[in-house]
Amino acid sequence: MTEHWTDSASRVLRADGLRIADLDTSARPGFHGGKSDGKRLLAERGQVLAAQQELLYANGRAGDRRSVLLVLQGMDTAGKGGIVRHVIGSVDPQGVDHMAFGVPTEEEQRHHFLWRIRRALPRGGQLGVFDRSHYEDVLVARVHGLVPEHVWQGRYEEINQFERELTDAGTTLVKVALFVSLDEQKNRLRQRLERPEKYWKFNPADIDERGYWPAYQEAYQAMLDRTGTGYAPWYVVPADAKWYARLAVTELLIEALRTLDLSWPAPTFDPAAELRRLENS
User: Fold this and answer.
1) Helical (H) or strand (E) element with 257
2) Across the strands, what pairs with 127?
3) pLDDT tens, residue by residue, 235-251
4) How far is it, in rounded angstroms, from Cα 200 to Cα 139?
5) From CA 258, how far away is CA 280, in angstroms rounded?
6) pTM score over 0.90
7) Spatial CA neighbour of 176 closest among 95, 94, 122, 251
8) Which one, of 208, 142, 175, lies nearest residue 73 by Cα?
9) Cα dist. 73→80, 89, 124, 139, 236 in Å?
10) Backbone dihedral region of 77: left (phi > 0), alpha (psi from -120 to 50 degrees) or beta?
11) Quick one: DSSP state of residue 53?
């Protein structure tokens, strides 16, 4: 067991049967230690993650078509961007396929909702990262009535079938739902308004969205209940403590990569012969 963890992150954070209404967003499931312990461990585990990701990338260069896709969902200020910077930022960017999904463009709106998702899927050997994802189409679309109810209701099963295809094709999905409290969100929005260097991160619509909090909680609960599967489970991460959320996602990714049981790819040349050629060159 990793230092300070009482159990694997995948076991303590798996969302099976979890009720969002009962979630303590300030909790640190499975972790015994403070902020200083967590930040120190994050740096250490970041090196482990980088080593595992390098193995994935190396195998991809050798023709392995397997990949890992991290899906990050959460309300505004839940910490998705921080995870991209502090967790994914610890690995080789050559081996990362990152996509942040915003409001669909006019072109994207002319296609099926999964069209833009399929175009952004990670290549073989890559660690893919979705900052928001296809789940916006059963969250925002549901809460704001962007499509009729029968349309978004049908999307849950479409998503399940889509993710079944992905896993069958060799993509390991790590789906993380980040949750902060309403009060913590207010604090983080306030910081964006009080610090000029954070203005660029603020969207006035974020305040409007707070009025839909109960509807979003219902939508997220339905998302967890209807799209958490054995082949693509959801992990729920309490995110009031940013350091804990980042450490938890790091552990989830390390576990996912280790399940691939990767080893260094065999060379397509004779290393000894090439070394002799090098010495004689």
Assistant:
1) helix 242-258
2) 68, 96
3) 999 999 999 999 999 99
4) 24
5) 40
6) yes
7) 251
8) 175
9) 7, 18, 23, 10, 10
10) left
11) H
